[in-house]
Amino acid sequence: MNTNSSLIYQVGQRMMAGFDGPYLDEAFIQLIKKWKIGNVILFAWNITGKEQLRELCRDIQKLVQEETGRPAFIAIDQEGGAVSRLPGDATRIPGAMAIAATGNPDNAYAAGRMTAEELLALGVNFNLAPVLDVNSNDANPVIGVRSYGEKPETVIQYALPMMRGLDAGGVLSCAKHFPGHGDTSVDSHLALPTVDKSVDELWENELVPFQAAAKAGIPAVMSSHILFPKLDAKQPATLSRSILTDLLRKEMGYEGLIMTDCMEMKAIQHTVGTVQGTVDAIKAGADMVLISHTASVAEASAIAIREALEAGEIDAAEWEQSLARISALKDNYLDRPVPDYAIVGCESNMEANFKLLQETLTPIRVPGGKFPELGDNPYFLGCPAFRATMVSNRDDDPFSFPVYMAEKLGGTALVSSSDPAAEEIAELVKQASQASCIVVGTYNGHLYKGQLELVNSLAAGSAPVVAVALRNPYDLRHLNPTVWSLAAYEYTDQVFDAVANVLQGKAAATGKPTVTVLSE
């Protein structure tokens, strides 16, 4: 193998790329064949069902092994809850904040292990979880329920068992988004956020879980595309040598894999640019760069990285160290025993998961100590799920809380817009005027305030009103005190079933919030 050819293989090991659709397309196949990309990321749009996912992972491994001589990391964002890529015929665990609401860290371990076993049985060997961000900013549009809570101690208490569960199930875990995405009010998928905290403040909050994870030996850490001026006045974390090498690698003593968040996110794409950004990230200390969507961009990045290496712009010793880290992790994880495929979505996993999900439901305000009876004419209101953040699955889903609940429990469904204005609110209140009980599902209502105005307007009537927060529990903060409120953390059919049990009196809501919802 000549040196030029060898460099192509090396560059490919240091990249992770993705593609659209449920099958390998020609552009991506040619990318692997020509540029020897050694690692692949999958999203919801790559997945239609568990059998299809297993076949796709087999196809990916066959292609990558033939072209590179090494197995591929196949990664996925299976955090649980709001960020779930697995299909409905696999087990989808609750999200971080929901699991923390159970008050039992053993649940995080069990959820991590169950997820890992199903992922590995499907062919996925790298889970981009847990989230170690401390959600200290309730206006955060991208983290929210993806965080275990608003205190670093809570994050550590649940994230480390999740990490251990994933490892016990044979899958790599990844702490994200270093050095912390919890105190942003901007989605880095759309623009470049800034966290202007002092170094001492960061060490008291954001960095605490990452230091704990580094000490616990988490296999991978993902960098964030966020500017931390007190750590580096010019470069976001992903491109900052001060943050990735001086802070994470040297000061915090982290010895595992450092990978970037997607380099096609607008925070990079609209500033330094994706291609130059991949080179700069490697210079900063990233071992692996992630290009999630576009084969032509991945190709251009591979060329740029190779040219920078040949020109001596990338430290040769660090290059070899990164290759060694990647190789060691592949040796450690990619020959582990694969569970029987029958475990995926099996009855025992589904039952255990639904029991866990039921435990996550969190009462926030319950006047009189119990939820009202639905009566003979309940009304269910709310908007369909929409893309609250770019990390969500690509398309808005017409699947609707009010329609699902009315079909399940009887009654009438009224579907609202995501941010209803006064005229729409007045019409919905009028239509629900004869209800025996009104149940409203909110979805990021703390950011789309028309939803909260709808709840409060309904509460002015005679029927009891129950508000169910189907993403961030902060929605429930500004509601009329007469409104019964329940935090459910995710917008899925399985959580709707759990909520129905509470409304019918078949189950109690026992969760405790790990973020401040109501002031004392």
How would you sum up this structure, described in words?
- Helix 3 links the parallel strand 2 and strand 3.
- With 520 residues, the protein is α/β, with parallel strands linked by helices.
- It starts with a helix and ends in a 17-residue tail after the last helix.
- The protein is globular and about 75 Å long.
Residue stretches low in confidence (pLDDT < 50, at least 5 long) are 389-396
The helical percent reads 40-55%
Largest sheet: 6 strands, mixed
**First-residue to last-residue Cα separation:** 68 Å
Number of strands: 14
Put simply, the count of helices is 18
* Radius of gyration over all CA atoms, rounded: 23 Å
* SS content category: alpha/beta
Strand order of the largest sheet: 9-14-13-12-10-11
Mean pLDDT: 94
Strand content: 5-15%
The best one-word shape is globular
Structure keywords:
single chain; 520 residues; alpha/beta; 6-stranded mixed sheet; 5-stranded parallel sheet; 18 helices; 14 strands; 12% strand; globular
Please write out the topology.
Elements lengths: L2 H11 L1 E3 L8 H10 L3 E4 L7 H19 L4 E4 L19 H6 L3 H18 L3 E2 L24 H17 L5 E5 L20 H6 L2 H10 L3 E4 L17 H11 L5 E6 L3 H4 L4 H11 L3 E4 L3 H16 L5 H18 L13 H14 L1 E4 L12 E5 L18 H9 L2 E4 L6 H10 L5 E6 L7 H10 L5 E5 L14 E4 L5 H11 L17
Parallel strand pairs: 1-8, 2-3, 3-4, 5-6, 6-7, 7-8, 10-11, 10-12, 12-13, 13-14
Antiparallel strand pairs: 9-14
Helix pairs in contact: 2-12, 5-6, 6-8, 11-12, 15-18, 16-17
Brief sketch in words of this structure:
Helices cover 41% and strands 12% of the residues.
